# Entry
Amino acid sequence: MSVYIERAKGYLIASIAAISLCNLATAEENAPIQVASAATIETADHKKITIDEAQKRLQTTYSRLTFTDFREGPIPGLFEIVAGNRVIYYQPQMEILIFGELFSKDGRSLTQEYLTSQQEKKIATIPLDQALVIGNGPKKIIEFTDPDCPYCQRLHAFLKDHAKEVTRYVFFSPIRGLHPDSPQKVVHILCSKDKAASMDAVYSGKVAPTELTKCEEGEKLEAKQEAISTQFGVGGTPMLVLDNSVVTGFQEARIAQFINPNSATQSK
# Structure
């Protein structure tokens, strides 16, 4: 159900929906929580509560929720949280979580602006020196992928066709619950002397299960890449970073536009 909230000074309109905690993504269990300051704010019912108190109350009530940022929101008594790749709002008096988007009166999405600023900070922390680097084209793509994900395989084939145009920074993020064989395929790739060629063979279905290799170094690299993916909040694959934008799924048109911004104009 949508609820419309108007700030007394008239600058915000929110279209929000409260949903059950059972739908929350828990991909960031290992992510560090940024502890907010102990500033005191006045809530909607004119009671005083510190940001620290609100955060502790949230963690007590919603113990399964993991988040990377917690701060005072743009509406009195409402707090903003970054959990995974979404912004959630928290009202401590009623102890409810609110999912939705806040807009200013001039049409700006305050939710998206906040999320973008947080994403840019997270993107800057991705250790690119620990990625499998493929190509040396002018366009940089950070890629979180799973060998047994059909859309990841399609993405791989698509990017292979644009090999001269992109540099791929690949992090393997096997979704173990859906693809139990993926971790071993990642280990096989990371054990290979030519990792890029091995990745292509695996993603193209040219490596039989009996041909998969194992090595201690590959297992260590696989665990490290999986930890990086978890830290970044990868809950599904493929997930890409194009400049400072996070793209989920194989969005072919958007990726093509990123690689060649003039392609749409030229095709008309």
Observations:
- The chain is about 30% helix and 25% strand.
- The CA atoms of residues 13 and 152 lie 38 Å apart.
- The longest strand covers residues 96-104.
- The longest helix spans residues 216-232.
